[in-house]
Amino acid sequence: MSFKTKLVIIFSLLLCSKISFSQQTEDPVIEYIIESVAANQTEDYDYSELIDRLNFYKRNKINLNKTSKEQLQELVFLNPLQIDALFEHISLNGSLVNTLEFQSISGYDLETIKNLLYFADINTPTGFENFSFNKLFKDGKNDLLIRYSRYLEQQKGFSSASNTSSNRYLGTPERVFTRYRFSYSNNIQFSLNLEKDAGEKYWNNNNGQTGPDFSSASLYIKDLRKIKKLVIGDYSLQYGQGLALWSGLSFGKGADIFSVVKPNLGLKPYTSINEFSFFRGIATQINLGKLDFTPFFSYNKIDAGLALNPLTNLEEISSLQQSGLHRTLNELKNRRRISQMVFGGNLQYNYRKLSIGLTGYHSNYSQDFAPGKSLYNQFDFTGNSLNNVGLNYSYTLNNTYFFGEFAHSLNSGVAYINGLLTSLSPIVSAVLFHRNYQKDYYSFYNQGIGEGSTAVNEKGFFAGLQIKPDRKFELDFYSDLFKFPYLKFRVDAPSTGYDIFSQFSYTPNKTTRLTLRYQFQNKQQNDDTPTFVNTLSFVKKSNYRADLSYQINKSFSLRNRIEMVQYHEENKANRYGFLAYQDIIYSPLSSKWSGNTRLALFDTDGFDTRIYAYENDVLYGFSIPGFQNRGIRYYLNARYNLKRGIDIWFRYSLTQYNNQQTVGSGLDEIDGNLRSEAKLQLRFQF
Amino acid sequence: MRKLYLLISIILFASFLKAQDNNGARITALGNASVALQDVWSVKNNQAGIAGLKKPIVAAGYENRFSVKELSTQAAVFSIPIKDYAVGAAFNSYGVSDYREIKTGLTLAKSFGPKLFLAIGINYHQLKISNYGNAKAFSVDVGLQYMAFPKLWLGSHISNPNQTKYGENTDQIIPAHIQFGANYIFSEQLLITTEFEKILDAQADFKAGVEYKLIKFVALRGGISVNPFKQFAGFGVNYQKVNIDFAVASHPVLGYSPQVALGYEF
Question: Does position A175 have pLDDT exceeding 70, yes or no?
């Protein structure tokens, strides 16, 4: 069946059945928050944890009179000055009595207040008052979700033609995800995630491994007398500016210039399905007045490739594998191949507007890390144990929030960052920070902000400005200069570059928003003209985006985007990329159906000019695919509320490439020019 | 050795595109986005700005480009209001004794009410290279500033529109350029200024700067220019009649250029 006939059938089906399409997160508030922090992230990042967190607070609202700085920071859209202003208001005027009070707190515009009250309130009950086990099971909320998805075309790894078992996927082509949550007020949460990716087996039973491919569980208890938090199972730790210890979700430079200031969230249960970068064990945060002490211990097995060192005849770690894919014999061999033990603690001192944190931990691996073979990774970590210490601070003085962190890996390098966030006038705010990360600074849990994804081998200075004259207009702007003092992959000399970003948005009313964005990046990389010695050349990339969303009636909204990329390498012709899409969103006030659909055209000159676009998905699903080459992308999401507490989601998506005989590469390759995916999700809330 | 290369390349390329003007530490710290500003140093940027000054001011500045002694500039400016008019003068000297560029300017500015300023300036350029000789030239500048809304100033400036040169035998050009931009005064404490500049036969540039008064007499400043990418920062202290400004410009490859200026208001 050709693509066209399929499309015709789909459209006619749509028309006949009068199906319509919904906001996937079914929540414009959450969607907008995520898009503003996710602007510069790559496609494989898993934001389900953030969606999860925001949805949780939507159902279990934060009590603003009893909340903590940490908890408010979890609502990524509040900046530190706003958080401090709220606590200052409460300490001066007593508990909040009416939500109208927010309008008198500095830094809170109507949109922020609206967003905050979406996730918080001034008098929600706290769970451990009158606690009993009867109540726990009576008032506790259960949430079970099962998601099934697969590509409809056969990938090479599953075909019978490639029957040598070393070169095929051993499992089945579907991806299955099961998610269970139990929550009792804001105080007790249990979460369980089970997942298998496409090509993985449901149940592993070779190499002494048994069980589902990925399973993660945690029990989280909050505010039990002196114990502020306790997590048994999988957890993440996020301290300071992410130099010494930060695992799990983190944001880079993005449209929301304040998101570069990391919130010090501390201990959190790990609920994501990223199969890398989390702790497994036990951790607790104990409150001792102005001091908070968080000891933690973790032991886990992680994926790694090993190679034999010919000198010592010992196996050494050649690479840590972060993809979490275990589809072939080889990938299965590396699954949970080495063991990792991490323990340490954090001491946090909070007094009024000052907060100081001290982090120290030890990590130990069952094998040594092999020294880097190339010149650019000469300074990579070797050995099997590492001690890290970090000192972070934040302080608010009048209209300025100062923040910073100093981190050191014992016997090797240091990394530090210092910055400030200030509101220069009620409508103008600025963020500045300077960073210096040495090339031999090591941390396995390092997500410091910068041009690179980890805080190593980089110096830079960032300046951002936000102008928000009223509710309608907003202008965001930043510039970032970065230098890499040592070589990097594909950059055979010390290099430098910069990044300029500007975004204008106009929101004349609640349902209409126009966004214009321009970004320019200039970096150095190896010139690929063959010469005796590699030399560097500048690579310039410009991005232009226009995005318009508006409502046409109470049920239907439309959204358009045009995005263009211009990519310039020295002595080469410019390359261009283009993407345009039309969204139709159906979200009626009272109907069992809701849904949304998109038709996108993309036309790019290959990988360097690929364009990322956020896509709506089933609830808790998340994707920002990157489009390259030429073709059409279509998707349809639908949600049906069967009865109270039972929801069904369906998603169909399709990418058709022009002038291509195959889609994908390696074992993922599909014959033909089409790749389509179907997804079905069920949720029970009881 | 590195410095020598730097020196040669800057003299050969940078000065080819734009005269090495010292704009004063306040304007430099604002990313040189000065076309809509009113400052005594406007006499070197958009002359119309001096029509907004109420008192005679004299100022002098020194810049050490990329921390190379030979690449320093010295500049002095002066302006005096006379009824609706203002008269200004500027002097700029760049280089070493073997290579020197001197620019001297005279300005007449007039305010047509509190909202509109116009100005015309004449510059005398001298270029001296030992063993090669001297060259001289004149150029003309015209500038305009207009307050479109309360607190919002727009500015426009054209430099050397008739493209005069040093002469037939000299490759060195006096660049023709056009600038326009806006300056918005958010409050007593805060202003943001922007400027677009196109130099004929060279790339276009966009600049922006922020000035924030920490307390009444201490101002912090920052700015950027996009093409070439540079970051700027500085501060100024205005104590009674004396003004001291400091600025530093950072170029990703060439490094830092510190600058200081001293002013006195009569």
Answer: yes
